[in-house]
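Weekly structure sync, notes
Attendees: PL (lead), two postdocs, one rotation student
Agenda item 3: pending single-chain targets
PL asked that the sequence for the first pending target be pasted directly into the notes so everyone works from the same version. It is reproduced below exactly as submitted, 658 residues in total.
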Amino acid sequence: MLRPFLFISLNFSALAASAQAPAATRAQDSTFVRQNYRKVEQLIPMRDGTRLATILYVPRDADRAHPYPFLMERTPYSAGPRGADTYPLRGPGPSRELSQEKYIFVYQDVRGRYLSEGQFEEVTPALNGLPKPGLKGKNAPHDESTDTYDTIEWLLKNVPGNNGKVGIMGISYPGFYATASLPGAHPALKAVSPQAPVTDEFVGDDARHNGAFFLLDNFSFTNYFDAPRPQPVAEYKELFDLKITDAYQFFLRLGPLKNANAPQYFNNRARIWNEYLQHDTYDAYWQARNIRPHLTGVRPAVLVVGGWYDAEDLFGALHTYQSIEKQNPQATNRLVMGPWTHGAWARPDWRKFGPYDFGQNTAQHYRQTLETPFFNYYLKGKGPFNPAEATVFDTGLNQWKAYPTWPPKAAENQPMFLAANGFLASAKENEIYQALNTSDPHITRAPGFDKSALALRFDEYVSDPARPVPYTAAIQGGRNNEYMIEDQRFAAQRPDVLTYQTEPLTEDLTVAGPLGVDLWVSTSGTDADFVVKLIDVLPDDTPAPVPNPKNVQLAGAQRLVRADVFRGRFRNSFEKPEAFQPNIPTEVKYELNDVLHTFKKGHRLLVQVQSTWFPLVDRNPQQFVNISTADAADFKKATIRLYHEPGHASVVRLPVLK
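Predicted structure, written out during the meeting:
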């Protein structure tokens, strides 16, 4: 979801992005908007009589001779700005490029949010079976698909000067509403672009990743988003006033999750927060909010967009595309993945992130070559538009790549073993490390070889919930957005983080697709989390960036490429968690989100394994208890072992392009 400290809606992001543009450009855009668009505010009735607040920006020359298509966003973050004379500065569209192209832009508060009537539901469950479009009345079944259908029907009949075609797009939560328009889509809906869409909040999006609760983001987000709304309102107020300067220390002092409902915080006023914590397994609540099974019979053209550095909905973009692809083999369905954080492709300029320079304005490139041509082609008949199935940015080479499928079919599974002596070994290298003949000169003469490692069948660390591993080295109140590319040397120095590293590569190695994690572990407790990171270790002669105001040193930097957490109790089932048997080797398998990253010659691959990632992720008591209601006394130290013996080999599987 778009967190309030990033973007509130696409319309708001247009305002925020306009602030980055030169003053002359902003003034020019503002003049263009007022000269070329008229604004209309309307309550549009749904099939059950509920009215949804909607704002339209209609080209002033729209008529039968000059008809325009609709381009719509449905949002829980306000369709504003409100008022007949209040216009967005940069343009009524989600981008300057689309505003200049001229569409009938439509923004709508979804059911139960801001000035729309009705009851809001978190990631509204889709109906089982599509109701007939003509079914009306107070008790008519409805979901986001039907609300979209009814809105389109009203627009076509009541807004003159339209060409009968509709497109929908949205980033994050609005991306979910774009996805939700696809089941049972209105015949006039021709083009849909879900961008960083919320897709499955328990398995991989905003609320939880593989069952582990994302504490930092959800605490701040629900404070704003979850305020009660007894009636339609123009603005929401936060549930409590709080300024956090050091998130690590704040959440450590907060203690167990249940303390968030103390009187000075949520105080049981936040319905969604309570739902998140009450439903601590993949039960009917979460399953109903997984839209993937409903993405069948897709007729509109689809452009799914995501960012490799999206800290919120990277999973959503990848798995929305995959679900449409698998369930609709004949659909027009394309994927774009760029070097972006959450929604960064909507910014005027995105050529750098942290200390890394991409060598081009990747956001502008995307909008000019993909997004704008996509809608122009399918809604205006203005073309051509024939990009590859997948347009993907290689974050190691800083290059756009085109593939006929994603993941690329040419990618081959290459296991990398977490071997003794901190070595990340190929299958062949691992055979040598597992050999019992210590007199073999190929083993004993290897540089840096430690003979004692042959007898050591596991590595271990003590995971202490009172001293969790921080997710970032930065000290700040909100999430450090750069943690997804951050130098991991701060973590490698800790005794509760295991590291496994290759020798310097003798040739480039391109990894393309999802990463497989297969760990053999044990714990002295009855539950544990596992965080696995894939890291690109830069050579010791890597120069510092220029300019370098933060005095960043890239020589030997451990650049994070991908990481994620898995809550061990769900190793066999998200629906039915199981305790660990203390000190018994147990397999934990899961998948890390896709990458496209070339590890260059001279670089090293490094894998880190740890059991806390705080306060990004809540702390596991390391006991098989209900974490949402756990007391401070339930949190225990645990000794974690990671095995690398025959039959219990711990592996990270890389999809390698040859």
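Discussion points:
- Confidence is low (pLDDT under 50) at residues 2-19, 436-446.
- The chain is about 20% helix and 25% strand.
Action: rotation student to compare against the earlier draft before next sync.
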